[in-house]
């Protein structure tokens, strides 16, 4: 008679543990305990009635004491940017934000890469505002050249 190398219960326990830990590790970073749950947030960007691809969109909290969590996204071919809080968590924390935009063109020289969006929409200069709400997930911004 042949002797068993592993007891069936032990083998099952090892397989279950392997299965559970492999799925637990693939979830990505854990949300910080003090971060509220982000709400879905999609920003559509147009410029001169055309959708803009590869536009960086930034949500900077108006008051970092109330909400220290910014969000960012990059538009796709449809002009749609799916925002992520802290570059890792889908959505944005509900609140008031300054929204800014950036799209770089091919550099002319190494000192200053040209932007394809007017400077008035730049990070740190934009006066555009948006309030992210749990009741709304899509926001559209039609940028102009002036």
What does this structure look like?
With 146 residues, this protein is α+β, with helices and mostly antiparallel strands. The chain contains one helix and ten strands; from the N terminus they run αββββββββββ. It has a domain of 102 residues: Immunoglobulin-like. 12% of the residues lie in helices and 29% in strands. The chain starts with 7 loop residues before the first helix and ends with a strand.
Question: Can you give me a brief rundown of this structure?
Answer:
This protein has 146 residues and is α+β, with helices and mostly antiparallel strands. The chain has one helix and ten strands.
Give the topology.
Layout: H1 8-25, E1 42-47, E2 50-51, E3 56-61, E4 71-74, E5 80-82, E6 84-85, E7 89-90, E8 95-102, E9 129-132, E10 138-143
Parallel strand pairs: 1-10
Antiparallel strand pairs: 1-2, 1-5, 3-4, 3-8, 4-6, 6-7, 8-9
Count of strand segments = 10
User: Based on CA inertia axes, which overall geometry fits?
Assistant: globular
- Using the 3D structure, state the CATH architecture of the domain at 42-143: Sandwich
- Sheet with most strands: 6 strands, antiparallel
Q: Into which percent range does the helicity of residues fall?
A: 10-25%
What is the CATH class of the domain at 42-143? Answer: Mainly Beta
Strand content: 25-35%
